[in-house]
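Q: Hi! First time doing this. I have a protein sequence and I read that you can turn it into a structure. Is that right? Here it is:
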Amino acid sequence: MAMGALVSDPSAATETAGEAAGTAKPFSVFVHLARNKDADQWRAAKRNGELVGFNEDTPYGYGRAEALGCRVAFSRSVPETAAAKLARLAARAFVGFDFFHALRQGEAMTDADIVWTHTESQFLAVAAVLLLTGAKTKLLGQTVWLMDRWVRLDPLRRALYRRLIRRVDVLTFHSPANLALAQRLFPDKKTVLVRYGITTAFRVEPRQRPAAPIRVLAIGNDRDRDWPTLIAAVRGQPDVSLLILSGAAPYGAARDDPNIEVRRARTQDELMRAFEQATLVCVPLRPNLHASGITVIQEAALAGVPVVATDAGGLDAYFPPNEIRYTPPGDVAALRAAIRATAANPAEACEQARRAQARMIDGRLGAEAYVRAHVELTREIVGR
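A: Yes, that's right. Below is the predicted 3D structure, encoded as structure tokens:
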């Protein structure tokens, strides 16, 4: 029988975590992240204003666990020679995860009570290292894209991943769609929905924005952004401009339309100016299982900007339709109509943004609830 669970009560988590912090020996948590998410480099980039987005001083806010009864250490990006880098990348391409980056973490990983991971790329690598070393360290395996990819995996990788998943103590998911598929694929594995959340330390009071001209802002690099549908929805609309801030969007798409601009946001100040000038934020998506776009939607809510998003990936488990205006996947006409309807009623759009922001700051969503859920699972898994 599938062992599914939902970590969703921040007040209960706060009380229990507080008791644990005051009465029990701190948990030793090792947070294993991708090689380009070195905690020291993250802090330096944030300090210099180069880390674009609503970010904490530690990657994804995991350092908050220090205040909740944990000792937290992060994976480090060990310097490597050109030959070592080539070998590491070749191995990653072959197995689909960065085994050597995990292997280099050594005692910091195997001596911890538990390892937290951010995506399947990390937990598969950690599981392989723990199996190789025989370490008894517990493992929390957070899954983002793996369920979307599962049906396309070759038989060899699927068998390998199943073996590694057996070493994971709990699989966590950001979306109920991901969770449901995992429960069918791994009925004997403990699976839990943990809603992703970003820092709520900064927010802008929602305000009524001018109905014209319509300035649409779209942000993100996720693989499931549906840029063609969004571009088609605004193309040929002289009163609508579109700014796409992305390193993954097709730059050539803007070539024939002066109202469409595609570029990267290089600094946090640049991102905040874009939020300030936008009529609305649009998050266009292809069908997916992993709550694609949820980070941008939360950032927009905190920036006080109304959101139009594709109804895909389980986003309604975070924000109901009275807080986000949803449209069907791939429907150009519906997306165009939603953009115009949001712009045409500034008062209603402002209230929509206000309700979404309230959900972010009342404890139901955000980095605090997200990290508390990890601490609660750690208490359960480690057993003290």
